Structure formats: structure tokens, C-alpha cells
Amino acid sequence: MKLKMKKFVTLAAAFTMVLSITACGSGNNGANSAQTSAPTESASNSGGTNTGSVSSQITPEDGAALTVWESKEERAFTEQIAKEFTQKYNVPVKIEEVAPADQVTKLSQDGPSGLAADVIVIPHDNLGKAVAASLVLPNDLFAEETKKNNTEAAITGASFEGELYGYPRSAETYALYYNKSLVKEAPKSFDDVLAFSKTFTDKSKNKYGIMWEVGNLYFNYMFIASTGGYVFGDSGTNKDDIGLNSDQAIEGLKAFVKMKEALPIKSGDINPDIKRSLFNSGDVAMDINGPWELAGYKQALGDKLGLAPLPTVDGKTSISFSGIKIYGVNAYSQYPNAAKLYAEFATSKDAQLLLNKLIGSIPTNKEALEDPQVKNDPYVSAFAEQAKNSQPMPSIPEMGNVWSPANAALPEIWDKNADPKAAMDKAVQQIKDLNNGAAAQ
Question: Which UniProt keywords are given for this protein, alphabetically ordered (predicted)?
Fold first, then answer.
């Protein structure tokens, strides 16, 4: 089992290079509605080699108009980038709000009928599902530029089975936000977090020393991986080797159970909106969260906002889940050249610096990482430090079968005092049944 973990960590090692400095609607334009079959790869390739500035050699199709899907939280970035793209290429861009986690599923439903966006945002763990269903075109025209300009981990996240599909735009993991007026120094261990919480938490006043989404595997992976657990073996590619119920994982989940004293509420009573409100008001002293909250928290707390790597678990360095957000080009798009130009344009150095400025995202572009805007930012640096101790989420299609069983097991443990081993055994069996039954959904 330790060998399996070592293999899994090899992919994590790539992610440490992310930052060596230091983490709804449907519809398209009307012309696309007649498109019913995915074009061949050659249909969008204008020929030539990927040398020099490829973007200067590619022109959008006549009459091209694009639709892109974007999250509500990051729409401000896309509005600015879309405006700049239209100014440069004279291609109008329509923005529709769709949560990134839902975009591949929505593309599978709306792509064949021509109702989906031309460019979508894909969390890298959803890429395998998209590729398996032939939903996205390879990143062929800009492959050399993409590989040259971005970190190794970003390219790993944007690739599936050795082929580059995505256009990396940001790296993500989570860390410990804290209110400096309440917590003078970031705690080094979860034992320290618990000790502080005993002096601060008052359920009757809705005040808590720390809060995080205790029912979500993404945020609780630290209690599984830090002690040696994992999702899939063989660098996250072996669906038949599941380590969520291993002895090492259960050891870490015992530390998870101990934290109930710091946060004595039901998992269902915690959601991003509630947590955000309580942290901004000073009723939650610490929050485990990602860079997508950075801009809002800085505005609310100002100089009182602190950010640090995750506390240790049972004396071991906390290992978080990490991800790469990438753009994918819809295989059914009538305007693949325009779509690829947009994906490249929106992931350039300048674009990633804009995304960092507006949202707080961590760039993957190597030049952007060295820019003073990023390099001298204490918050981004803290995420970067945690990124060094993170593991990329597996990107095989079977990862889609993990979330629901695991996210049912964690509340059983937290809310109902279920035995961690029994709860995770049940979850693993459900994952195996899904993996060996119908195709991953």
C-alpha cells in the first residue's frame, strides 16, 4: 500500500512545480443550432507547424461568434477578457453562467444539438470524462506554446492519456484563512486549532473557532492523505485500488472526528454562504477555503486577514487536494479556430495576471508566476506553499463515481457518530460497484 501511495505522490510532485516561488443557461448563437456531429480534428487545423506565434497565423472563421460558460464568481474576469478578445479579433462573445463542476455534464447534454458553449471551463478531474465522451477537441494548434508557457503540473492536468486537450488558466488548492484580530498566529496543528476553539467556540452565540465543509471530500482529503490514504493507486489511475478505507486513511479520520468539539454543528448547516458570512463578521475565526474567496475576504477584513498553509494532522504535514482549471473547446463548435484562439488568448500571461488581480487565482503561466504582482503577494504565496504539499485529483472518468459515496460517508461520521471504518468501507464498495457497472456518470 505504501508503494501505491508513492506512485500517487509522483503526480503530486509535479504539482509542486506549479509555484516554485512559493493553488446557467444553455444556448449558443443561432448559427450553431444545426450542428449535430462532432467535426474531425483536421476540420479545425489550418495546417502548418506550431512554431513562432501561432495565434498570428490563425484567423477566426467568417461570421464566427462564440459562447463561453463561466462561473458566477469569476464572471468579472471573463467579461473583461471577452471584451479584449472581441476588440482584437472582431468576434462577439456571449457569456452564460454555469458552475464549472457542471459544465462537462451540460456539454454532454447540449453539445450534440448545438446548444452548448464553444469554450467551457473544466476542473481537470473532469477531463477524462470529457475525453472519453469525445466532447472536447485536442489542444493541437497551440500545443507547443501551451507546454512552453505553463508549469509541468498544469500540463499534466490539461492532458489525458498523454494527449494535451486543455488550456490551463489557474491552479487551485485550499489553505487556512484566519482573522488576525482573533487569532494572533496561525496554528501549526489541528490540535492547536482545537485548543483555540475551546476558548472561542460558543454554539449558543453561533461563534466557532474554525469552519469548513465537513461533508465534502474535497476539503477533507487532508484527513485521509496526510496519514497515507489515497483515492486511486498508481498515480490516481487504478480504479481497482481504492485507498479511502485503508488503515492509513482511517488513522487520519480519527483526527477528523476529534474536530467535532471545535465545530459542534451538523454538516448540513455549513455551506459557502453561511461560512462566508460568519467569517466576514468575525463569528468564525478560521476558515479552510480556496483562492476563489480571497478577493471577498480581503475586502471584508482588510489587514486583519491572514492566510497560512493547513495545520498538521496527527503530527503529519497536511496534504490537500489540488486542481488545475482549464479551458476546453467544444468538439461540436462550428467555430473551432475562433474557440481555440479565445482559449489561448484567455490563458496568456496577461490574462492570468488579470484573473489573479480580480479573483485571486494562482497562475499556471511561468512568466506570470514570476511577476511581482504574484511573487510579492503574501496570500498567493501561502497558497503556493500549501500547493507544494498537495495531490492533484485523479482525472480518470471513475473519479466521478467517488464524490457521492464519499460525501455521504463523511456526514455519517460527523453527524451520526458512525464508525469511520464502517462508513468508508460502505463508500468504497459503492464506488467499486459504480466503477464495475455502468460507465462513470
Answer: Cell membrane, Lipoprotein, Membrane, Signal, Sugar transport, Transport
| CA pair distance 172, 281, nearest whole angstrom | 25
Query: Which residues lie closer than 8 Å to 441 by C-beta, 6 or more apart?
Result: 400, 401, 434
Distance CA 441, CA 426 (A): 19
User: In angstroms, what CA-CA distances link 153 with 20, 135, 325, 381, 382?
Assistant: 11, 23, 11, 17, 18
Q: Interior CA angle at 251 toward 248 and 253, to 5°?
A: 115
Rounded to whole angstroms, the Cα distance separating 119 from 66 reads 8
How many Cα atoms sit within 13 Å of 215 on the Cβ side?
16
pLDDT in tens, the chain (441 residues): 433 343 334 334 444 444 433 333 333 333 332 333 343 333 333 333 333 467 678 899 999 999 999 999 899 999 999 999 999 999 999 999 999 999 999 999 999 999 999 999 999 999 999 999 999 999 999 999 999 999 888 898 899 888 999 999 999 999 999 999 999 999 999 999 999 999 999 999 999 999 999 999 999 999 999 999 999 998 788 999 999 999 999 999 999 999 999 999 999 999 999 999 999 999 999 999 998 899 899 999 999 999 999 999 999 999 999 899 999 999 999 999 999 999 999 999 999 999 999 988 889 999 998 899 988 999 988 998 888 788 889 988 899 899 999 999 999 999 999 999 999 999 999 999 999 884 444
DSSP character string of 225-290: HTTT--SEHHHHTEEEEE-TTSHHHHHHHHHHHHGGGTS-S-GGG--HHHHHHHHHHTSEEEEEE-
User: What does the block give as the cell for 218?
Assistant: 474535497
Question: DSSP string of 43-55?
Answer: GG---S-S-S-GG
Contact present, 405 and 37 (Cβ < 8 Å) = no
In the chain, what are the domains? 11-172+323-388 (3.40.190.10), 175-321+395-436 (3.40.190.10)
Helices (H) then strands (E): counts for the chain: 20, 14
Q: State if pTM tops 0.70.
A: yes
Check: CB of residue 288 under 8 Å from CB of residue 219: yes
- End-to-end Cα, the chain, rounded Å: 28
DSSP code per residue over 4-16: HHHHHHHHHHHHG
Tell me which residue has cell 472563421.
61
Is the CA virtual torsion 141, 142, 145, 147 positive or negative? negative
Alpha-carbon separation of residue 37 from 33, 40, 44, 333, 334 (angstroms): 11, 9, 14, 9, 10
